[in-house]
Design brief:
Layout lengths: L17 H18 L3 H26 L5 H38 L1 H6 L2
Length: 116
């Protein structure tokens, strides 16, 4: 599975401006959510799970290694875990969006060109 860091790395969005990419992604996401309402929860789930696991590991790490600033270490670990999980959720969501991106681009060319 390829890694999508920016809109330019998504093949369907590579030839569009930033404003056009925002429009296309927003409309494709609305279509995807209409067809599969659970997609919002499924995309956010890895971030929440990652944050929880990171926080738990931070608490465990504090008991083993750190005597001071326990809560700060646990929160930082939770933030790192949430960031990693959010990245994974974003990658999954982008992969799910790609067919909807193609369909929106094919069906709404005139609306996309006006967004430039």
């Amino acid at each position: 599975m390829p890694i999508y860091l920016t809109n330019a790395t998504v093949p369907e969005l590579s030839g569009f401006t930033a404003a056009q990419c925002r429009l296309i992604r927003r409309k494709a996401f609305a279509t995807l959510c209409h067809e599969r309402p659970s997609v919002r929860v499924l995309a956010a789930l890895p971030g929440g799970v990652g944050g929880g696991i990171g926080f738990g590991l931070g608490v465990l790490l504090c008991h083993v290694a750190f005597a001071q600033h326990r809560m700060a270490v646990a929160v930082v670990c939770g933030m790192i875990g949430g960031g990693v999980g959010g990245f994974i959720g974003g990658q999954w969501l982008t992969e799910q969006l790609r067919p909807h991106l193609r369909r929106f681009i094919e069906e709404h060319r005139d609306e996309i060109t006006r967004a430039a």
